[in-house]
Amino acid sequence: MSNGRKNLYSGIFFILFSAFLFIESFNIKMSTADALGPQFFPRLVAFLMLVLALILIFLSVKNWNQAKAEEAAMPAEKRKITFNFPLVASIVLLLAYFLVLQHLGFMISTAVYLFCQMFLLLPQGSFKKPRYLVIVTLVSVGLSVFIYYLFLLAFSIFLPAGILG
Asked: What are phi and psi of 133, to 5 degrees?
């Protein structure tokens, strides 16, 4: 599959994902503690993701003919579609994170998500060494606690507390 086609499919996926994120931002409970509200950042991210996805689609359609010519010149054995496990697993992890965020809370779900994502992206065999397991655990827990308190104390934005609060 050519880069142009991959970019086109990626752009379409991120348009759908940004629409999903924007729609789901309406389920975030409103608070009067801050001027922007807790819905602002998810909607901002969804909007920026939409803009970048549209740019990606525009550029891939613009280069469609060039990509088609490159694909036709490519040998048949290189045109095979391969299964990209880390990509699919990352998408599943993101969706699972989004679904459990309100129930488990930000700190627990973020720490588990970060741990799983790092485990997925580290080279194979890295977790056979206890040093990597300790580092990934400390980074996952420390980063989720730091982000939670950063939003709470610096921005006065309450993230979901879940079962902890």
From this structure: -60, -40
Instruction: State both tokens at 49.
Output: 């993701």
By C-alpha distance, which of 152, 121, 125 is closest to 139?
121
Return all residues near 127 (Cβ < 8 A) that are at least 6 apart.
Answer: 119, 133, 136
Structural tokens at position 33: 């503690």
Q: What is the pLDDT of residues 91-107, one digit of tens each?
A: 999 999 999 998 999 99
Kindly state the tokens that stand for 15.
């348009």
pTM flag (> 0.70): no
What does 94-152 look like in DSSP terms, one character per residue? Answer: HHHHHHHHHHH-HHHHHHHHHHHHHHHHSPTTGGGSHHHHHHHHHHHHHHHHHHHHIII
Residue whose pair of structure tokens reads 């397991």 in the numeric block: 133
